[in-house]
């Protein structure tokens, strides 16, 4: 089996600065051949690209996380757009709405999300969306701005069944994290993923966050080597063969991020 961690933050110096090479080696041994490093600020997007330049199988996105919307401005969007032309950049984001923690006001989040969607559409890049407790507002914005459909993924999906179907109808993928493996927190998600179409699924770690079971019994920090645990639970819930489902999801991810066969490490 081979795996593509469709969303991680391994450029994070605090989490991975001391053992990044060993972490990447563990990922390779677990057959995690490719990883998408999701940008969350201008500086972190630059760091993600720099990491991709020195390692095979790593790809990056550029974007502003909704938590950081209040510090965004037009110059930052322009700078991100310039970075997004780098050959290792295959998506825009992580961007979206987070009305749970409210690190930035709602109207500010919406303003800069709209600007980022416009930038991504102009560059013809798929978009990595963050959504938490927006109560349908993200869906409303997407339907208004891109009624003919989008390319991208709702990462770390945490919505309800109606929202899941609506995102799929818009042409988006659903990103599944280690939450799926958590006995209580993942209960509703396990019931929903049974209804996902094969071609609508991506799997991710969101490393260093959301460590799956059973690894979280031994490790506080998540890392890409643990993404096979997400796949294993997903296959069990869907009553699918792990090897078949792993390859379908690997191909889904390569197609979304336009990763060519020659770019995949062997």
Could you explain the architecture of this structure?
The structure is a single chain. Helices cover 40% and strands 17% of the residues. With 266 residues, it is α/β, with parallel strands linked by helices. The protein has a single domain (3-263), classed as TIM Barrel (Alpha-Beta Barrel), CATH 3.20.20.140. It has an 8-stranded parallel β-sheet with strand order 1-2-3-4-5-6-7-8, sandwiched between helices. Helix 3 (42-53) runs parallel beside helix 4 (74-83). The longest helix is centred in the middle third of the chain and has 18 residues, at 106-123. The protein is globular. Keywords: Hydrolase, Metal-binding.
Mean pLDDT: 97
Major sheet: arrangement of strands: 1-2-3-4-5-6-7-8
Q: How much beta, percentage-wise?
A: 15-25%
Count the beta strands. Answer: 8
SSE series: EHHEHEHEHEHEHEHEHH
**Which CATH top level class fits?**
Alpha Beta
User: What's the end-to-end separation, in Å?
Assistant: 12 Å
Q: What would the principal axes of the Cα set say about the shape?
A: globular
**What name does CATH use for the topology?**
TIM Barrel
The total number of structural domains is: 1
Q: State the helix count.
A: 10
Largest sheet: 8 strands, parallel
